[in-house]
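Posted in: Structural Biology > Protein-Ligand Complexes

Title: Requesting predicted complex, arginine in pocket

I'd be grateful if someone could produce the C-alpha cells for the following input. Sequence and ligand are given below.
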Amino acid sequence: MAQLWGGRFTKETDSLAYRFNASIGFDKRLLRQDIEGSIAHAVMLAKQGILSIEEKDRIVKGLAEIREDVESGKLQITEEYEDIHSFVEVNLTARIGEAGKKLHTGRSRNDQVALDMRLYVRTQILETDALLKAFLETLLSLMEEHLDTYMPGFTHLQKAQPTTLAHHLGAYFEMFKRDRLRMRDIFKRMNFSPLGSGALAGTTYPLDRDYTASLMGFEGPALNSMDAVSDRDYLIEFLAALSTVMMHLSRFAEEVIIWNSNEYGFVEIDDTYSTGSSIMPQKKNPDIAELVRGKTGRVYGALVGILTTMKGLPLAYNKDMQEDKEGTFDAIDTVKDCLTLFGAMVRTMKFRRDVMARSAMKGFTNATDAADYLVGRGVPFRDAHGIIGQMVLYCIAHNKGIEELTLSELKSLSSVFEEDLYEAVSLKSCVEKRLTIGAPGMAAMREVIERNRKYLSEDWRVFENSERIQIAERGGENE
Ligand code: ARG
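-- Reply #1 --
Done. Output follows.
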C-alpha cells in the first residue's frame, strides 16, 4: 500500500477499510488533469522562489514522462496506490528523487482533487458541446430535406393538425440548441481555480494563485479557500444539464420507437442500428432508441446522487465528496455515447414519406382549417366550430374524410361551403397557409433554417480562454 500519510500511524489500515477508502479504481481517469495541475503548481513554486529552477525542471519533466508512460502502457496504474494523487507523487519521487518530495509544498489533496475534477469537467463540457453541435448539424440537414414531408402533428398522441417532418425535427433542434447554451453558461460559472486553497485555509507560502489560474486557462482563482475545496455546484449544474439532454433524447427516442412500430410505419431504422429477436425471426427492434430512453434513468440518478451527497455536508472538505466521481463519469460517458449513437441512427433512418402523408390526411387533421374556411366567409368562429363538429360526426358515421364529402353533403351542413373548400382543406394548403415564423409553412421554415444555419456557422469562440487551455494541457511549456 502506497500511502502519503503514514507518519502518525502505528498500525496498518484494515484491508477492507483500505479498499473502501481508496479511489484509485475510478480517479485514475484524472491522470492528465492531476499532472497538468501539478505542473502548473511546480512552475508557480519556482517563479515564487519556493523551488529552484532546476527542481522545477526535473519535476515537470518527470511528470510529463509519467503521463507518457501511462499512455503508452509502459506504466500501469494499479490498486496498490490509494488514489491518483498518490500514484503520481510516489512515481515522481521514485523517478527524480528528492525534488519529487517537494512538489506537494503549499498544496493539499483537497485543493488538488478539486482542481483535477474541475479541469476534467471543463474539457467534458467542451466535448459535450461539440457532440451537441454535430447532432444539430444532422437535424438541420434533415430539416432541409423534409420541408414538404407531410405528417400528422399530435396533441395527447391524437392527430391534431398536419405539419411537416422538418417542423417536427425543428422542435428538437431548438431543445438541443438550448442544451448547448447551458453548457456555455456552466463553463463560465465554473471556470475558477481552486489550486492554492490548501486543505481549507490557504497556505503560509507566498503562492501566486492568479498565476496558476492563468496558466491553466481559468478566469481567476476561486476567492474563498473553504468554498474552493468544497464546492461541487458545477457538477450539479453539469449533471442537471446532462439530465436535460437525456430528457430531450428520451422524448425523441420515444417518438422514433412509436414511428418505427408496425402500426405507424413512419420510419425504418437502418439495420446497422437495430437488432433482432432470438426467437421471432421477423423482428427488427429499435433497441438503440430504447436504450437511450432507458439510460436516461442513470443520468438522473447521478444528479440525484450528488445532490444527496452534498446535502448537509459541513464546511469544508469531507470524504463524502469522493462520491462525486463515479456517477459523474458514468453520466458523461452515457450522454456522449447516446448523442453519438442516436445521431447516427437518425441520420441513417429512412422516413416513409407516403405513409406519413397518408396518415396526416386521416383523423380530421384538417378540421381546424375547415373551420377557418367558414370564419373567412363571415361565420363567427364559435359557430364554425360547431358546424365542423357536426361535420366530423357525419363523416365518422359515413366513414369519409372531410375532403371526400360531396358539395351537396357540404351544403347540407352549411350553405356557405363552395367548391373551393376542397383546396382549402387539402394537406398541402393546410400546411402552407401556416406562415408565421415558427410554423410549418415552407417559407417560414426556410427562414428558420437560414437563421439556424447562421447560428451553427458562427463559430462563437465559446470560451475566450481556449488557447490558454491548450497551453496548459501541453504542460506549462509557456513558462
Ligand atoms: N480521493 C479523494 C477525493 O476524491 C481525494 C482527496 C482526499 N483528501 C483527503 N483529505 N482525504 O475526494
